Amino acid sequence: MIRFYFHPTPNPAKVSLFLEETGLDYEIIPVDTRKGQQHDPEFRKINPNGKVPAIVDTDGPGGVPATVFDSTAILLYLAEKTGRFFGQPKDRGEVLSWLMFIATGLGPFSGQAVHFQHAAPAGLDYAVNRYRREIDRHYQVLNQRLEGRTYIVGDECTVADISAWGWVDRAGHVFKKPEDPLGDYPNVKRWFQAMDARPATARARKVGADIDFKKTNDEEAQRALFPSNYPAV
Question: Which residues does the UniProt record annotate as the domain GST C-terminal (predicted)?
Answer without folding.
Answer: 88-225
